[in-house]
Write a structure and sequence with these properties.
Number of domains: 1
CATH superfamily: Aldolase class I
Shape: globular
Helix content: 25-40%
Structural class: alpha/beta
Radius of gyration: 21 Å
CATH class: Alpha Beta
Distance between the termini: 48 Å
CATH architecture: Alpha-Beta Barrel
Largest sheet: 8 strands, parallel, barrel
Strand order of the largest sheet: 1-2-3-6-7-8-9-12
Length: 441
């Protein structure tokens, strides 16, 4: 590194989105406890993810990242974990089949507890629990540990084996034509899996187990510092890793090159995500890339674009060109959620499925027109049948939102809408092979 770095060097920089606790002594006691607790992930797992992200950046695989906007401690339970894991695995199978390429699976999970003003690792949602409580940081660690442990248990027990058609429920699809299209994809996918199993091409284990990585936004830097470890790499070297997740990202408000969050991120070996929006100046983005990834390591940086459906054509081409000229090769990912949030009746935040698909469509097209390639997608989603986003094959309307509106933060795609997106992306790749455009809704 051009300048000296330590896990605490961020404290010398300006910081935004910080939390102030009433008792510094209690806060220090909690951080000291976290410092002594074991890592959640290993350096080997992190380096494995970085290798897979390198392949995504080079166009040889595709990244699927998804999960809750803000995780709750209450989600650390059997059914929510299984539901979220199932939808991500099913989406990844559909994408693998459609794109004819390996899929890197990464969840916003086992640590996505921090939000700027209120979240489970800061305070409670009840007005009487609004005071920041440092003990909640310990709660975040232990809930992350339990969640990740159960995910690993499920994957080791064959939960990833979703070749059975009975696992794919398409009863939610209202249009018979769309249902037939989806069913055709599922039938072809499961037939392919069964054929591989019959001829032994699955090696008895590859269909029943997968690599699965966890990620969260690096927002509370004291917490992130407490989970930063000097760990041995697979090659026997010692380096600094954030051992609380495989992958961390910084948001639209915390990506200033001279500020604390960027200072922290530039020193860890984990792959790093950067949100890129309409306010991102191309020159500032290149400066940021040079600070965090001066060696231009492929697989280190993921750029997560979130412009909104109406802004992709205006902003994305200049970002693609600036990055190309810089010599950096990132993983280009589309987040079609954050730029498309609207307010529905009853003052509920929502997102329209058609806007989400439009941003995805335009992002695929703009990358192709600019001799680039979209390498992944990033969704806020849940494995449950909530009613938070309008549209999709269920034809949810504004009036349906109140029937099962559960989010404590931003609206998420439900299980059915998440599969809708995966099927549409699969259709895009199928049509691309036939030189057709992305299907519009």
């Amino acid at each position: 590194m051009s300048q000296s770095w330590s896990p605490s060097s961020w404290k010398s920089k300006p910081i935004v989105q910080d939390v102030v606790y009433e008792s510094p002594e209690q806060f220090d006691n909690v951080l000291n406890k976290l410092n002594r607790l074991p890592p959640l992930v290993s350096a080997t797992e992190i380096e494995n993810l970085k290798k897979q992200l390198k392949e995504a950046a080079l166009g040889n695989s595709f990244l699927l990242q998804g999960g809750d906007c803000a995780e709750l401690f209450d989600y650390c339970s059997q059914e929510p974990i299984e539901a979220k894991l199932k939808v991500l695995l099913q989406m990844s199978l559909v994408l693998t089949w459609g794109a004819r390429t390996p899929v890197v699976r990464m969840a916003r999970m086992a640590g996505q507890y921090a939000k700027p003003r209120s979240s489970d690792n800061v305070n409670g949602y009840d007005p009487k629990d609004r005071k920041p409580d440092p003990e909640r940081l310990l709660g975040a660690y232990f809930h992350s540990t339990a969640t990740l442990n159960y995910v690993r248990t499920l994957l080791d027990s064959g939960f990833a084996d979703l070749h059975e058609p009975s696992q794919w429920n398409l009863s939610h699809v209202r249009s018979e034509n769309v249902k037939r299209e989806y069913q055709t994809i599922v039938s072809q996918l499961t037939d392919s899996l069964d054929f591989m199993r019959t001829v032994g091409a699955d090696n008895n284990t590859s269909l029943a187990s997968v690599d699965f990585f966890v990620s969260h936004e690096a927002l509370l830097l004291d917490y992130e510092q407490s989970l930063t470890r000097w760990m041995s790499t697979p090659k026997g070297e010692k380096k600094w890793y954030n051992a609380g997740a495989h992958f961390l990202w910084i948001g639209d408000r915390t990506r200033q090159p001279e500020n604390a969050h960027v200072e922290y991120m530039r020193g860890i070996e984990n792959p790093v995500g950067i949100k890129v929006g309409p306010t991102t100046v191309p020159d500032d983005l290149i400066n940021l890339l040079n600070v965090i990834n001066p060696s231009k390591e492929i697989g280190k940086i993921t750029l997560i674009t979130r412009f909104g459906a109406a802004n992709v054509e205006k902003y994305l081409p200049q970002h693609i060109e600036a990055v190309r000229q810089s010599g950096h090769i990132p993983v280009w990912v589309c987040d079609p959620m954050h730029g498309n949030t609207k307010t529905a009746s009853a003052n509920l935040k929502t997102r329209h499925f058609v806007d989400i698909i439009q941003e995805l469509s335009q992002t695929f097209r703009v990358h192709k027109e600019n001799k680039s390639k979209l390498n992944g997608v990033h969704f806020e989603l849940t494995g449950d049948s909530v009613t938070e986003c309008i549209g999709g094959s269920m034809d949810l309307t504004d009036k349906d939102l109140s029937s099962n509106y559960q989010t404590y933060c931003d609206p998420r795609l439900n299980y059915e809408q998440s599969l809708d997106v995966a099927f549409l992306i699969a259709k895009y790749y199928e049509n691309e092979r036939r030189s057709k455009d992305f299907p519009n809704l």
